[in-house]
Write a structure and sequence with these properties.
The complex is a heterodimer. Chain A is α/β, with parallel strands linked by helices. Chain A has two domains: about 220 residues, 3-Layer(aba) Sandwich (Rossmann fold), CATH 3.40.50.300; about 60 residues, 2-Layer Sandwich (Alpha-Beta Plaits). Chain A is built from ten helices and 14 strands. In chain A, the strands form three sheets. A six-stranded mixed β-sheet of chain A has the order 6-7-8-3-9-10, with helices on both faces. A four-stranded antiparallel β-sheet of chain A has the order 2-1-4-5. In chain A, helix 6 links the parallel strand 7 and strand 8. Chain B is mainly α. Chain B is built from ten helices and two strands, in the order H-H-E-E-H-H-H-H-H-H-H-H. In chain B, strands 1-2 form a two-stranded antiparallel ribbon. In chain B, helix 2 packs antiparallel against helix 3 and helix 2 packs across helix 5. The two termini of chain B are about 25 Å apart. The chains are: A alpha/beta, B mainly alpha. At the A-B interface, helix 2 and helix 3 of A face helix 1 and helix 4 of B. The structure holds adenosine-5'-triphosphate and magnesium ion. The site of magnesium ion has 4 residues of chain A, from helix 1.
Chain lengths: ~300, ~250
């Protein structure tokens, strides 16, 4: 990303809780306008990294800046530029949805914000709940209010920590439509999620974290190509077996079904040639596109084996 | 200290709205309790008992009013903070660019207002039973405000310190309650043995109540100017401490 300004920069971020190291030297630049995915298993340190960014936790070493503003020295500006959707489902039981959003606007110095509040409510399908008390909302609705709260001050950088947990399919799609539109309007989006297909379709670039470190950082397309590639699934005819030459790229065998890894799509020619030479009859054949879950399991699994 | 545009107004308004939404618990209940105190005390004590030359029941009213001011100011900031910490909604004030000074003043001002509202309520409901009006209302207002602010600041510290509701209750029962009860709410310290009179002079709440009562009767155990100096110094010290803790993010930012 050559001409891009840096929206969020983590430089050597180290965070300890007592003797436990939650972030072990994280360095990462996220460009302005990116749709960025932060993935990793439970306890990887994603929320901790976001907390350090938001000023909820203080780093022990390193520094973090939002659009060039240090989150400690220049905390007021940095926080104005950030909209955070927290992972925990929290709400203030004293107020209605609209009051909650008005109060949140006022914290950012916005007195008259009703037009934008109405637009957010509409986009998150909350309009008819605007005057309900927070206590009376369902879990999914409360989560949508959290999204709304993060957006009241139109922050250029929006961080969503598992925003779709507990949100139904229809609304999840509505939420993504809205977030995508904000991204197209120039907002930088940072997303953590455990729904990998969500990350795969939405994020341009992905960091994979585990045990407080970044294990992989690349564009989604490169990650998929590097660590997953296509899979060729063959249904062998009765009594046939896989030629010796193809054993090395065999990923799985399920009865007569054999799954072969293809580093690149043009390796397909070679595989078919070997099958033909060996005289193996293939009953059926299909090609599976690369899959982020596969990438995830490989990278995270490798890290497991080498502590 | 720059307060304007720093989130003070919004947070102050939110804190007022919070207790006003549940005014039955936060205002009506303490007013009723104070009225019960007055009725019971005036029933069990002889009618001709006097303090400073005023009937005991009249002497009692400013003490009850001030006790309500102090306890409710403490309750407001401390319970608001512990509640939002336990539920996690404290996030909503930690994420925006609210300065730590604005945070402090918003909680303290809202606590003092809650104290004043309840205090006013107590005075109004006792009026038909024991009519007492302040001779010097400015002293009354000044000590009520300062006293409310001090207990409000103490409530900020307690609310941030406590991780659970029972820790907060301990703070209230073992510190706030003894300090207010033993400050001369129910008696003039001149009626105490000399040793306990001397001890009382180390209790800042004694000066708050003594100065406050001076506003009603024009008589007090110590001069109101002296009480004002002690109370103001107390507030300044507590404010500096609280601001320093907030600036460090003590227990709020890990
Ligand atoms: N306040 C804290 N005190 C002590 N340890 C903590 C604290 N917060 C987080 N941790 C630890 O730091 C590690 C990282 O936690 P974190 O919440 O950042 O993980 P995560 O990647 O967000 O996981 P998840 O996908 O489950 O949300 C965990 O081992 C967690 O137990
Ligand atoms: Mg998390």
């Amino acid at each position: 990303m050559p001409a891009m300004r840096v929206a969020v920069s983590f430089a050597g971020v180290l965070k300890r809780f007592g003797a436990f190291t939650a972030l072990d030297g994280v360095s990462l630049d996220i460009g302005e306008g990116e749709f960025f995915g932060l993935l990793g298993p439970n306890g990887a340190g994603k929320t901790t990294l976001i907390s350090c960014l938001a000023g909820l936790a203080r780093v022990d070493q390193g520094s973090i800046a939002v659009l060039g503003h240090d989150v400690v020295r220049d905390y007021r500006t940095a926080r104005r530029l950030l909209g955070i959707v927290p992972q925990e489902l929290v709400f203030d039981p004293f107020f209605t949805v609209r009051e909650t959003l008005r109060i949140q606007s006022a914290y950012f110095g916005l007195r008259r914000n009703d037009d934008w509040i109405d637009e957010i409510l509409h986009n998150l399908d909350l309009t008819d709940k605007a005057d309900s008390n927070m206590r009376r909302l369902s879990g999914g609705m409360k989560r949508r209010v959290l999204v709304a709260q993060a957006l009241v001050h139109r922050p250029p950088v929006i961080v969503l920590d598992e925003p779709t947990a507990g949100v139904d399919v229809e609304l999840r799609q509505g939420l993504w439509r809205f977030i995508r539109r904000l991204n197209q309007d120039g907002h930088t989006i940072i997303l953590t999620t455990h729904y990998l297909e969500e990350a795969e379709t939405l994020c341009q670039r992905i960091a994979l974290m585990k045990r407080g470190r970044i294990l992989a950082l690349d564009s989604t397309a490169n990650l998929l190509a590097r660590f997953s590639g296509h899979a060729l699934v063959l249904q062998l005819a009765e009594g046939q077996c896989l030629p010796e030459a193809l054993r090395s790229c065999c990923r799985a065998v399920r009865g007569r079904e054999v799954e072969l890894a293809l580093e690149r799509l043009d390796a397909l020619e070679g595989v078919l040639a070997i099958l033909r030479q060996a005289g193996v009859t293939v009953a059926d054949l299909r090609l599976q596109p690369p899959d982020l879950e596969d990438v995830f399991m490989r990278i995270v699994g490798v890290a497991e084996a080498t502590p | 200290m720059n307060i304007g545009g720093s989130g003070f107004a919004a947070l102050f308004y939110k804190e007022l709205l919070r207790f006003w939404r549940v005014a039955f618990q936060t205002v009506a209940a303490p007013v009723l309790t104070a009225l019960l105190y007055l009725l019971i005390f005036s029933h069990v004590l002889e009618a001709d008992r006097q303090v400073y030359g005023v009937p005991y029941t009249s002497f009692l009213v400013p003490g009850l009013v001030m006790m309500a001011v102090l306890q409710n100011a403490f309750a407001n900031s401390s319970s608001s903070l512990i509640q939002s910490k336990v539920t996690g909604s404290i996030l909503f004030v930690l994420l925006p660019p609210i300065s730590y000074a604005a945070f402090f003043w918003a909680f303290v001002a809202a606590a003092a207002i809650r104290g004043l509202v309840v205090g006013l309520g107590v005075w109004l409901v006792t009026l038909p039973f024991v009519p007492v009006a302040p001779l010097q209302p400015w002293w009354v207002l000044l000590f009520a405000l300062l006293g409310g602010a001090i207990l409000g600041a103490l409530g900020v510290i307690a609310g941030i310190w406590a991780d659970k509701f029972d820790q907060l209750a301990a703070f209230q029962n073992f510190l706030v309650l003894p300090l207010t009860m033993l400050s001369g709410v129910f008696y003039s310290i001149h009626s105490l043995p000399t040793f306990w009179q001397a001890v009382s002079h180390y209790n800042p709440v004694f000066y708050m109540i003594d100065g406050f009562r001076h506003g009603f009767f024009g008589i007090s155990d110590v001069a109101p100017e002296q009480s004002l100096a002690v109370v103001a110094a107390c507030f300044a010290g507590l404010a500096l401490l609280t601001l320093a803790l907030l600036k460090r993010g003590w227990k709020l930012r890990t």
